[in-house]
Amino acid sequence: MTFDDFDFEYELLDGLHAMGFDHPTPIQVQAIPVILNNKDLIACAQTGTGKTAAYLLPILNKIIDAPDNIRHLNTLILAPTRELAIQIDQQIEGLGYFTGVSSIAIYGGGDGAAWSQQRKALAEGGNVIIATPGRLIALLQMGEINFKNLQHLILDEADRMLDMGFYDDIIKIISYLPAQRQTLLFSATMPPKIRTLANTILQNPEQISISVAKPAEGILQQVYMVYDDQKIALLKHILKEGDYPSVIIFASTKDNVKKLNEELKRTRLVAKAFHSDLEQKEREEILREFKSKSLPILIGTDILSRGIDIEGISLVVNFNAPHDPEDYIHRIGRTARAETTGTAITFINDKDLRKLAAIERMIGKEIPKIPLPAALGAAPEYKSGSTAAAPQKRPAKKKPFRRKSGPKPNKPPQNPSQTNA
Question: What is the pLDDT of residues 173-184, one digit of tens each?
Fold first, then answer.
């Protein structure tokens, strides 16, 4: 099957062909006809399967044919992070290059000039608005946006938005929207809270599920059993000995990200930390450098697991084990995108065994355990099937024998006859 089989408008097909896209992915094959038929949709698919284009292509096609009176503010896309909002905006620019469809990304964290630019773009009339919930609510409350002609509402990475506490914001935003609209909900996982949200905002939706919670086949997954005080040395060994031109390292908190960045700088490895304390311009510049391959190593928290879509990432390192198996899927999904290959390495300490067990249950297989380099010493013990056990204690180091101070003991007799001498 090719994109020509969807009977898209020629302007949209020109954009697809110019970008070198010929064959749709499975999620695109199933979702595009449903959206073109104006039905609500719940779509569950792992990261890297092409779900963004699965909703953008039919929406762009519908806007091309839309009357002028409903092209302005025709579609609203909600995204959890500004990075994802910018990424979606860029995809619209590429896919819709020949269509004349306009879009704008609305997000917080910028300066006053960015705020003014967003307000001006809204007033002049964008066809597609991509927004983070917080900034959009501020504009709605100020009366800056009127969605009376809105035709489509799309929630991208819905599970992540709920994890970030946006449920009430989403419901509030929907109160400003027309009841008669097409609503599309895309999510990488489908926990009960997503079902609850879907039942609240969708009408008789179609449902699609593609390879839920399964990493891409092209990812080489590996685990190192390692104590915390061995992690830095192990990471340096991997980065120096391996041939990895583009690397993402995930740490559990922004403080860990900053500390890890300083450690790598001391060894003259070219890396940068990506975290919420940076100004928006700094974050955008770091992503540009990483995307252009001028920055080989990027260090961040889970915000990176859903906030960027960059091909050619050769290695993902989970410096800290992810809290949830779903986060593991999204982290390692940064590599092996678009049918390429990549490596995902996870450090598991003596307290992470239950997390490892949950990950292996979700993906349905045991991840190979790689021995530590001999110079790093002993590692936590791992036995197949034992990952649900309690945390292990690190083996105590043997102390060297030292003779106590004081007079030396008499030598033992050389033979029994000396005993009575």
Answer: 999 999 999 999
